Amino acid sequence: MEHPRISRDPKIMVGKPCIKGTRITVEHVLREVAGGSSIELIANEYLLDRDDVVAAIVYASDFIRHESLIAA
């Protein structure tokens, strides 16, 4: 699946996936959500579009969906 709002560049944040045109990582967005911040609050706080925040969440979901399962 394509993620046009997410970019990975080894020169930006050591290649971590970021919201395109920013240094805001997908990881940071997920930690904000996990900490109880709403999508709207994150968007306002970091001057992002709501769709940027949603794209970060979707990217992480797609990444996890394609991970291999390891049997215990």
TrEMBL record:
It comes from the Bacteria. InterPro entries: DUF433 (IPR007367), Homeodomain-like_sf (IPR009057), WH-like_DNA-bd_sf (IPR036388). PANTHER family: SSL5025 PROTEIN, SSR2962 PROTEIN. This is DUF433 domain-containing protein. The lineage of its organism: Bacteria, Pseudomonadati, Pseudomonadota, Alphaproteobacteria, Caulobacterales.
